[in-house]
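USER:
Try writing one entry.

ASSISTANT:
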Amino acid sequence: MKKLMLAAALMAMAPTAAFAQAAAYTTSTTEIGTLLDDPAARAVLDKHLPGMTTNEQVDMARAMTLKDIQQYSPDQVTDEVLAKVDADLAKLPAKK
């Protein structure tokens, strides 16, 4: 019975751990500076938010998340764009 309970507990935890590893970066929790410093994540930003990474003011937003800056640029940083960025960020290999 104990083995069965342990196996069930491990199985319940596995999807959470796998998701956490796959979604190393998100638009709501990862600072823009972290995304800019990772070439693969930066490419995702360039794809969905062209011109953002080369904007002369981007360094002022390094400590903010994309979700944070949405209020300042709601026409460009839409919920749809954030969802697409999150989807592509989730595809990136986990950092060790």
Q: What stands out?
A: The helical segments are 2-22, 32-37, 39-48, 66-69, 79-90. The two ends are 36 Å apart (CA to CA). DSSP finds five helices and no strands in the chain. Residues 2-90 form one domain.
